[in-house]
Amino acid sequence: MQVTKHVHALRIPFQITVSPELKIDRFVYAYLIYGPKICLIDTGVKSAETIIFDYLRKTGRQPEEIDMIVLTHSHPDHIGSVHSLKKATGCVIAAHSGEKDWIEDVDLQCRERPVPGFHSLVGGSVEIDRLVEEGDILNLGDGLSLEVIHTPGHSRGSISLYFPADRVLFSGDAVPLPGDIPIYDDYTSSVSSINKLKDLEGVHTMLSAWDIPRESDDLYQLMAESISYLNRIHKFVAQNAVNTSPDLMDLCKQVVSNLELPTAAATPLLARSLRANLKALGR
């Protein structure tokens, strides 16, 4: 769907296979910026290029017009089809240096951060053509540009992107949705990154990887609620780790119950987040 004058959103559904009996339905957004050429922000999961190419053709554009892909971070639902897209278009791939190893070697990522069905979600590794850092400006032509904002926490090299022409902020997974499964590698950095985004001026629309477009006061309210959500989790972990180092999976189940999440949310990925809370507590 078209969101602003230049920006289009693609909702890409997928499943995480936890076991033969359990499959979790998920989705992720990828975004197209239409200018003289096309910039794609994140790529969805493996085979998502079919959805992307079909949408381009329906809107009068062509796949070969994709000039650049900017990856907000390296997780499977964001880089899954980048290998196929690079092969099909020859476009430039841009990402933060903190995500380089896992994008250029997806097997390494799978070993260091195993996700159920990892290789069903990721089509392959790809070389990064342009490493970006805080404050970099990506020129999209005809006066259009993206400003890179380093927003670590969800991952070490997570970035958000500001598109001033339409006053749009692409936040990737930097701002967790209250009530969803909290996934982050660094609790303190996550809160700091959200506060950094809250301080941005002139933003009219926030586009994340997991949510509908948020506009005006609503987007800032969501950021505040996200910080409260992370702080609630941290407080709960602190209260349950006062005198002992808890078993992480037991702690997961307690957090899932406290947050009223589905039982299936007690996974190693959530345990990784809670380990970050324990680290922040010096445990």
TrEMBL record:
A Pfam family reported for this protein in Swiss-Prot or TrEMBL: Lactamase_B
Superkingdom, natural source: Bacteria
Keywords for this protein: Hydrolase
GO molecular function term, any single one: hydrolase activity
The Metallo-beta-lactamase domain, residue ranges: 27-210
UniProt cross-references to InterPro entries, sorted A to Z: Metallo-B-lactamas, NDM-1-like, RibonucZ/Hydroxyglut_hydro
Gene3D superfamilies, per database record: Ribonuclease Z/Hydroxyacylglutathione hydrolase-like
Keyword Nucleotide-binding assigned: no
PANTHER family listed in its UniProt record: METALLO-BETA-LACTAMASE DOMAIN-CONTAINING, METALLO-BETA-LACTAMASE DOMAIN-CONTAINING PROTEIN
This protein's name: Zn-dependent hydrolase, glyoxylase
Organism ancestry: Bacteria, Bacillati, Bacillota, Clostridia, Eubacteriales
